[in-house]
Amino acid sequence: xxxxxxxxxxxxxxxxxxxxxxxxxxxxxxxxxxxxxxxxxxxxxxxxxxxxxxxxxxxxxxxxxxxxxxxxxxxxxxxxxxxxxxxxxxxxxxxxxxxxxxxxxxxxxxxxxxxxxxxxxxxxxxxxxxxxxxxxxxxxxxxxxxxxxxxxxxxxxxxxxxxxxxxxxxxxxxxxxxxxxxxxxxxxxxxxxxxxxxxxxxxxxxxxxxxxxxxxxxxxxxxxxxxxxxxxxxxxxxxxxxxxxxxxxxxxxxxxxxxxxxxxxxxxxxxx
Length: 272
Known about the structure:
The protein is α+β, with helices and mostly antiparallel strands. It has helices spanning about 25-30, 45-60, 70-80, 145-160, 200-215, 255-270; strands at about 10, 15, 30-40, 45, 85-95, 110-115, 125-130, 165, 175, 180-185, 190, 220, 230-235, 240-245, 250.
């Protein structure tokens, strides 16, 4: 049976069969940036924040972003209607149209897609990466040069777990292959300092703001010890997911106070 085709949008045109040029910088070198966004009941979560981050990446890559937030919001709404989606994964992808990277401005393509996605309440297990390979400038941005993260994800699958926890060259925790991590230890939530490596995700920022507003103590600092009372990973698509174990360490998960705090954070974020 042929897989269903979903409408996408490329540079102003809607299509059920969009394609990318084999001579583009996106195809040849993975040159570009992207944002992945969650939508439920046609409510798009954090679109302004994702647009702002894509705009910053556009400047970094010298790729013009020629559409306003209002225009992208309109396109996303249309795609959700055309594809009849109640829960959706929305992706904004800004890529190089050619490979003359010496140009002050590199012609770009903007592609917007919307596909089915359902959030899971299942907990996840993690394994630490076998070697550090994530101290690079691109690790702080949503780069379409994503192969190293996919390799990390595949490594986790060979170990029979859900995802890989990445480390920097000194052994500090950074993030999983697609999410930020929070650990609770002695009544304080901790999340890694991502100044030199790792993506400070939009959902991570929202969680930190919720902790502030709920007056729940937390710290942002270099972390090497993942053994704690409680842990969750988060990103804009999955929301918050509990971690059951990292390597051979199993989280106790019997902390009523930590569990209550996570539920309070979810309510504060209007979690769905």
